[in-house]
């Protein structure tokens, strides 16, 4: 039994997540966690909302709420939609919780002790009327490049150029609108990443569990040269800046910058989980405290790769403490909305809460796994969604389950029938099943999710092929014994079809396994002798057809959803 620590990129707190966020981080991590649990491994799947930073403060003020109250509410919403999609986090924490604050302050102390953090005098915009320094997004003004009048201090939304707040013409405070601003000197803490470049490169060279996409992003950053970077900001919302347990002098109105504390949230959330479960979190994270046998797997979209292969490692490796670093990393390309961008700020695309209003979580899970933006970007369209769901779930899997269970009910009194003998059709099924089970397991293990889904679908299709060969329907009148062995084998194989579907569509798989009265202890990944697996159900066991498993998506649905969410015209 292996110990596997899994984290998915932390969803940011400023609103409900869209299907792209789900497909590129939380869902694949969940599918992988579920697969590994089925293999009998000890899995810890940790996630948390990433709550600090200016976008959270600004979203709160737009909502007219106190930032903590806003984050409380948004965390709840994300927690609930995670449940709606059956995301099986062992713990869904928050970076605003005390454990993350404590660990952030710890890392800052240790890094400073190692000479990797320095105080640097920066020149920043101070708002006299607001009596505070304004971090970049709190200053707006006219873009010096294109003349756009509401350019932000970090970037112009009109021409896309990156800006410094001092570049803006006629700057004003986003807090009060005041133009009574001046440039003042103020001290910030900088993480001296330049001093870490060689160590990170050596560490990246040695990494074997990263795909080429992740390696190339890490090397691009390293080749372009790391820069020393501020890890503090002039905000109230965030982890207070401390030194050796006391507030740091001159930093009373500053907090740590979100990019520094967010990944520490993985550790903080694990510590929260442990406190609630009477467990030892360091046995998952510290190689000197039992974590040397842990395999740590991270999931994220491609824009987060550099943070996980360079920035966060700078913190971890810089501490020279025996923390676990990532072993396997899975990065995704973009799920697009009709070829364009899903966007939280522009509310473009389908968001997790709304998605659940129109279709159950399993439908989305299947679609987004079978079409994961893995080797390249992948475009969501309503038409594609309809065709995938109707074919794979309704026609291939749903139809098999309904046909076999209904026939069994009408002809064999809804119990696993006796009679007949194992023959060449069953030999054929057993041999094919072995090959496909192995391929499916290998692809789940390799985190090749499209291929894993294709193999699961292949197993479902195999069931239908077996029915075509065994023909229990036609045999029933002339050869009832032959029909009995066909139905009995088809019922046994149905259990296999559902067991392997559990990582991707856990709710539907459970419905099928419950209908077959498979005990919880027998739902692990199928291993061993194929004939034994295909004859496992006791004769006489009662098996009832479930209610309709999958509902087909109709043209009317597509029309209604396009009307409600938009579609092709927004691409
Ligand atoms: N369209 C997408 N396809 C795949 N993954 C995505 C997509 N958009 C974001 N992600 C990933 O989702 C995870 C969580 O993202 P986060 O909550 O930070 O939102 P984000 O990246 O700011 O997205 P947006 O800007 O669209 O709100 C990250 O790992 C990110 O890379
Ligand atoms: Zn501009």
Automatic annotation (TrEMBL):
* Alphabetized UniProt keyword annotations: Aminoacyl-tRNA synthetase, ATP-binding, Cytoplasm, Ligase, Metal-binding, Nucleotide-binding, Protein biosynthesis, Zinc
Where in the cell does this protein reside?
Cytoplasm
Q: Which GO terms describe its cellular component?
A: aminoacyl-tRNA synthetase multienzyme complex; cytosol
The gene coding this protein: metG
Q: How does it assemble?
A: Monomer.
Give the protein name, as stated in the record: Methionine--tRNA ligase
**UniProt binding sites for Zn(2+):** 143, 146, 156, 159
The record lists the lineage as: Bacteria, Pseudomonadati, Pseudomonadota, Alphaproteobacteria, Maricaulales
> Which intervals of this chain are the motif 'HIGH' region?
11-21
Name all Methionyl/Leucyl tRNA synthetase domain ranges.
Answer: 4-405
């Amino acid at each position: 039994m292996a110990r596997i620590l899994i984290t998915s990129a932390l969803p940011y707190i400023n609103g409900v997540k869209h299907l792209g966020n789900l497909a590129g981080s939380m869902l694949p991590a969940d599918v992988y966690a579920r697969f590994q649990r089925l293999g009998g491994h000890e899995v810890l799947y940790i996630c948390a909302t990433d709550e600090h930073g200016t976008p959270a403060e600004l979203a709160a003020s737009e909502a007219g709420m106190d930032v903590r109250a806003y984050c409380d509410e948004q965390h709840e919403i994300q927690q609930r939609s995670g449940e709606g999609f059956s995301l099986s986090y062992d713990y869904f924490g928050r970076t605003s919780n005390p454990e993350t604050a404590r660990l952030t302050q710890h890392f800052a102390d240790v890094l400073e002790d190692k000479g990797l953090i320095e105080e640097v005098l920066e020149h920043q915009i101070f708002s006299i009327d607001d009596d505070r320094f304004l971090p970049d997004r709190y200053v707006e003004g006219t873009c010096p490049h294109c003349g756009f009048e509401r350019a932000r201090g970090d970037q112009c939304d009109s021409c896309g150029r990156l800006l410094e707040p001092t570049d803006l013409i006629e700057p004003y405070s986003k807090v009060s609108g005041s133009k009574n601003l001046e440039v003042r000197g103020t001290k910030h803490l900088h993480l001296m990443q330049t001093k870490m470049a060689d160590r990170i490169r050596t560490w990246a060279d040695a990494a074997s569990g990263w795909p080429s996409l992740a390696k190339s992003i890490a090397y691009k950053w390293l080749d372009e040269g790391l820069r020393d970077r501020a890890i503090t900001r002039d905000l109230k919302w965030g982890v207070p800046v401390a030194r050796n347990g006391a507030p740091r002098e001159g930093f009373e109105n500053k907090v740590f910058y979100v990019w520094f504390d967010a990944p520490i949230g993985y550790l903080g959330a694990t510590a929260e989980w442990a406190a609630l479960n009477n467990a030892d979190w360091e046995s998952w994270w510290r190689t000197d405290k039992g974590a040397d046998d842990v395999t740590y797997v991270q999931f994220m979209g491609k824009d987060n790769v550099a943070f996980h292969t360079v920035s966060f490692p700078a913190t971890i490796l810089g501490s020279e403490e025996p923390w676990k670093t990532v072993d396997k990393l899975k990065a995704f390309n973009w799920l697009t909305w009709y070829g364009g961008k899903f966007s939280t700020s522009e509310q473009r695309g389908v968001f997790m809460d709304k998605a659940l209003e129109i279709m159950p979580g399993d439908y989305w899970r299947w679609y987004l796994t079978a079409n994961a933006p893995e080797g390249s970007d992948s475009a969501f369209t309503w038409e594609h969604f309809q065709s995938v769901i109707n074919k794979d779930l309704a026609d291939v899997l749903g139809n098999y389950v309904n046909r076999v269970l209904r026939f069994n009910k009408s002809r064999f009194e809804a119990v696993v029938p006796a009679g007949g003998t194992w023959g060449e059709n069953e030999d054929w099924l057993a041999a094919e099943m072995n090959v496909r089970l192995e391929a499916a397991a290998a692809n789940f293990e390799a985190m090749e999710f499209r291929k894993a889904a294709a193999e699961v679908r292949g197993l479902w299709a195999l069931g239908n092929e077996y029915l075509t060969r065994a023909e229990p329907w036609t045999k029933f009148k002339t050869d009832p014994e032959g029909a009995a062995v066909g139905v009995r084998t088809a019922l046994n194989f149905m259990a296999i079809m559902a067991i392997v579907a559990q990582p991707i569509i856990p709710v539907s798989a459970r419905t099928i396994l419950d209908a077959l009265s498979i005990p919880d202890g027998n739902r692990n990944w199928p291993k061993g002798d194929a004939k034994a697996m295909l004859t496992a159900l006791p004769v006489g066991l009662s098996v009832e057809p479930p209610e309709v498993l999958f509902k087909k998506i109709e043209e009317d649905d597509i029309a209604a959803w396009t009307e409600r969410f938009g579609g092709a015209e927004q691409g």
